[in-house]
Write a structure and sequence with these properties.
The chain is of the alpha/beta class. The protein has eight helices and seven strands; from the N terminus they run βαβαβαβαβαβαααβ. About 45% of the residues lie in helices and about 10% in strands. Helix 1 links the parallel strand 1 and strand 2. Bound molecules: NADP nicotinamide-adenine-dinucleotide phosphate. This is Short-chain dehydrogenase.
């Protein structure tokens, strides 16, 4: 299926590595010009080069810390001579920087998680909105997590930020629909890419086992929860993002899509 993304311009936050990078590559391989984002300039340059070579589209860098409101504003201001329209915004940045249970998370951990995961989405969307309004079929994709709506046991600060993102995304779908802008949330289960290694390290520490044992246990758990008996990867998520970003999904807005191998399957 040709998703007709040629000539579209996409911005993906937190995309020099992990899931964001897979999304940026998938959009570029469908023909979109992509702006990638990250803090480390060298990694950003290398990723831009790699995606450019694999896709033959224009890849631009947004070398900005997603928790820096001024940096985000400045990016849009100084690039306004060429960035006249935006068609796709993927708010992907936002992962666990610190792991913890309710008792050992401090105020600053809650606030940091809110800044990185939730406020980055608010700030990028606010700056991008005038450009998205100029697109004939703009789409905002916010990357949530199963914990946006399914309680776990740990990392309450991250859960709160992801749940806030889901709630506000639905409000944005209501408000932005008048401008033809669609807003959807994609919620992956644990995937074996991106922050996976940090999850493994946290589990090894909590369970007092080796990283190899922790990784095996995590993989076994994930597989046991899925009726397919498999664990997801970044490209399982990026395929859906590319579809939702395209006009083929023009009737879809205000929704939350789980990419989880059936973990949250409903009983009919
Ligand atoms: N991995 C999973 O299992 C999983 C499951 C469910 C949901 N998710 C969600 O999927 C998204 C991506 O996850 P991931 O595992 O791929 O994350 P990740 O590996 O932690 O993502 C790292 C990327 O984000 C950039 N980044 C980190 N902090 C940044 C900041 N302050 N400003 C700008 N860029 C920043 C990194 O570049 P620099 O370090 O150079 O800045 C890098 O490009 C997150 O929203 C996460 O919550 C992931």
């Amino acid at each position: 299926m040709d998703l007709e993304l040629k000539g579209r311009i996409a911005l993906v936050t937190g995309s020099s590595n992990g899931l964001g990078k897979a999304i940026a590559l998938a959009l570029a391989q469908e023909g979109a010009d992509v702006i990638i984002n990250g803090r480390n300039r060298e990694t950003l340059n290398n990723t831009a080069l790699e995606i450019g070579m694999k896709s033959n589209t224009n890849i631009h860098n947004c070398h900005v810390d997603a928790t820096d409101p001024e940096g985000i504003k400045q990016f849009f201001r100084i690039n306004n001579f060429w960035l006249k329209r935006l068609d796709i915004l993927v708010n992907n940045v936002g992962n666990l920087e610190k792991f913890g249970n309710f008792s050992n998370l401090e105020d600053r951990d809650w606030m940091r998680s809110y800044e990185l995961t939730f406020m980055s989405m608010v700030r990028f969307t606010r700056e991008a909105l005038p450009l998205l309004k100029k697109s004939p079929g703009a789409s905002i994709l916010n990357i949530g997590s199963l914990v946006s709506h399914q309680p776990g046991k740990f990392n309450h600060h991250y859960v709160a930020a992801k749940a806030a993102m889901l709630a506000v995304s639905k409000q944005m779908a209501n408000e932005f629909g008048a401008f033809g802008i669609r807003v959807n949330v994609v919620c992956p289960s644990t995937i074996k890419d991106g922050g996976w290694i940090r999850n493994v390290q946290d589990r090894a520490k909590r369970m007092n086992v080796s990283p190899q044992e922790a990784e095996q246990a995590m993989e076994d758990d994930a597989k046991a929860r899925s009726p397919l008996g498999i664990i997801g990867h970044a490209d399982d998520v990026s395929g859906l993002i590319v579809f939702l970003a395209s006009d083929k999904a023009k009737f879809l807005t205000g929704h939350c899509y789980n990419v989880d191998g059936g973990i949250t399957r409903s009983a009919i």
